[in-house]
Design brief:
Number of domains: 2
Bound molecules: oxalic acid, manganese (II) ion
CATH topology of the largest domain: Phosphoenolpyruvate Carboxykinase, domain 3
Number of helices: 16
Number of strands: 29
CATH architecture of the largest domain: Alpha-Beta Complex
Length: 586
């Protein structure tokens, strides 16, 4: 039944895009190697050193096409209000006719790949089917690494009618004719003019976050930009946490952390590094699955000291995009921990002249998750893993303490809703400016964020055992411009503090921004961080918070009357504590 609807949609799509042939993917290893062969022949892929990086390749994208383009990403709902002030909006009819024209004959002379894929573990009530049609073999191969292609999806289609169609064409790769369109009401994705991951691997941001955020609100679950990790304690018991951070802010590093407290028995296990789908179980707890089957991680800064687990994960079967390449065929990037060798080729393929980055700042690795040496034994459990804590984090060089515990679910939702973040290279635009990025979902929530906050509040009410919420910030800098906290594997010390808070085993001082660690309650034995630094990292800077509260207010006011009263009240409470006033028109 549903397979027929897929076939019907594929026929329509090929009539529109007119490819030279159509290939249905069933997900076998042979298909993957055929795709690779096609790309090795036409230069889309370059084989890396087969001894050191078996079955691994380098792809260089068009230099105009290296990151998500939020300005060219649209939500096409019947009313503009549904998309909210946080999205670019286009009417569905304008989108279908205007952008439809660009798809006419866009696949001429190319092969169209039809990729049925499953987001989520096989057999999970949370898992969902997508079908991507693409004229890019690079996108097709990447989908093989990032999702469960073929049989798992077709099997699920036998028992359910629901699938999310996604049409992708490279078009002519011109940013002038690039559009990433979402039709959440009909669960449809159209993307043209880009081959970059977040714009083109439609299972990821387009489906698993934007379309899924819409479905989640309708169906009473949550689709979040969150890593999922398990923290094992010395007794061997595991506590799962989900953490939302904006793009390129260390989610992969946190999810794959080699704990600095491993000899004491604290160890981290990876469930996912980017997206979580969360549901309430029969006992009233929140459970999370990782809808993806691979990692699309940021390469620069990844090294044996910052993320040895990722370095092992990407030793084989990996596609690297826009990294530099050494003369002996190894991938190279800034921060990899080895000096750039003579004759290094930069991300564009020319000999690197030593100025500017050799690897693109948003260069990536794409790799199957099962290769991760610390992948959690339950990462594919159809029920998902129970979540005890939710963390919100972002890059903030000032103000935001190392860790703060929310005073209640409502307060935690407010913390996430008001979160400011310094921008990164994962999206085009200026890097390092603070913008409000609620729950790290600003680029990914397909509907009015005021309704999204209301959905979070409602989910909290529906749970008997809601997770505790924490705000974290590893990115504080001192006056010398250096980070105050060592980060990476040392972040386990903060996870340990969180675990102790969950168990009521350590003290915190309650303040109007939340509960801050009591002096000495964060385990810093063996670290060179001074007590003064710890004081700065956990201090409350009233003047800074006054500005922060004002900036939050300016952001919240964009949502007008729709802003849920609980968020308004939390904001007013914060402002009152700072002796300043906030105003909302009502
Ligand atoms: C990503 C992103 O690729 O958030 O995960 O940009
Ligand atoms: Mn992401």
């Amino acid at each position: 039944m549903s397979l027929e609807s897929v076939e019907h949609w594929v026929d329509e799509t090929s009539a529109l895009t007119r490819p030279k042939n159509v290939v249905w993917c069933t997900g076998t290893p042979e298909e993957y190697s055929n795709l690779v062969d096609v790309m090795l022949r036409d230069g889309t892929l370059i084989r890396l050193n087969e001894q050191l990086y078996p079955n691994s390749y380098l792809h260089r994208s068009d230099p105009n096409d290296v990151a998500r383009t939020e300005n060219l990403t649209f939500i096409c709902t019947h009313t503009k209000e549904a998309a909210g002030p946080n999205n670019n909006w286009m009417s569905p009819s304008e989108a279908k006719t205007g952008v439809g024209k660009l798809f006419e004959g866009s696949m001429k002379g190319r092969t169209m790949y039809v990729i049925p894929y499953l987001m989520g573990p096989v057999g999970s009530p949370s898992s969902k089917v997508g079908v991507e049609v693409t004229d890019s073999p690079y996108v097709a191969a990447s989908m093989f690494l990032m999702t469960r292609v073929g049989k798992p999806a077709l099997d699920q289609l036998k028992s359910s009618d629901e699938f999310v169609p996604g049409l992708h064409s490279l078009g002519d790769l011109s940013p002038d004719r690039r559009f990433i369109l979402h039709f959440p009401e009909e669960r449809l994705i159209w993307s043209i003019g880009s081959g970059y991951g977040g714009n083109a691997l439609l299972g990821k941001k387009c489906f698993a976050l934007r379309i899924a955020s819409w479905m989640a609100r309708e169906q009473g679950w949550m689709a979040e930009h969150m890593l999922i990790l398990g923290l094992q304690d010395p007794s061997g018991s595991k506590t799962y946490m989900a953490a939302a951070f904006p793009s390129a802010s260390g989610k992969t590093n946190l999810a794959m952390m080699v704990s600095a407290l491993e000899t004491e028995g604290y160890k981290v296990w990876t469930v996912g590094d980017d997206i979580a789908w969360l549901r309430i179980d029969e006992e009233g707890r929140l459970r999370a699955i990782n809808p993806e089957a691979g990692f699309f991680g940021v390469a620069p800064g990844t090294s044996v000291s910052t993320n040895p687990v990722a370095m092992h994960t990407i030793e084989k079967n990996t596609i690297f995009t826009n990294v530099a390449m050494t003369p002996d065929g190894r991938p190279w990037w800034e921060g990899i921990g080895t000096p750039p060798p003579a004759g290094l080729l930069d991300w564009r393929g020319g000999v690197w002249n030593g100025t500017g980055p050799a690897a693109h700042p948003n260069s990536r690795f794409t790799v199957p998750a099962r290769q991760c040496p610390i992948i959690d034994s339950d990462w594919e459990d159809p029920r998902g893993v129970p979540i005890s804590a939710i963390l919100f984090g972002s890059r903030r060089s000032t103000l935001i303490p190392l860790v703060t515990e929310a005073l209640s679910w409502e307060h935690g939702v407010f913390m996430g809703a008001g979160m400011g973040a310094e921008t990164t290279a994962a999206a085009t635009g200026k890097v390092g400016v603070v913008r409000r990025d609620p729950m790290a979902m600003l680029p990914f929530c397909a509907y009015d964020m005021a309704d999204y906050f209301a959905h979070w509040l409602a989910m909290g009410k529906a749970m008997k055992h809601p997770p505790a919420i924490f705000r974290v910030n590893w990115f504080r800098k001192g006056e010398n411009g250096k980070f105050l906290w060592p980060g990476f594997g040392e972040n386990v010390r903060i996870l340990k503090w969180i675990l102790e808070r969950l168990r009521g085993k350590t003290g915190a001082r309650e303040t109007f921004i939340g509960s801050l660690p009591e002096d000495g309650s964060i385990d810093i034995h063996g670290l060179s961080v001074t007590r003064d630094q710890m004081k700065t990292l956990t201090a409350l800077d009233r003047e800074g918070w006054r500005r922060e509260a004002e900036e939050m207010g300016a952001f919240f006011r964009k949502f007008g009357d729709k802003l849920p009263p609980a968020i308004r009240d939390e904001h007013a409470r914060l402002a009152r504590s700072l002796n300043s006033s906030t105003q909302y028109q009502s």
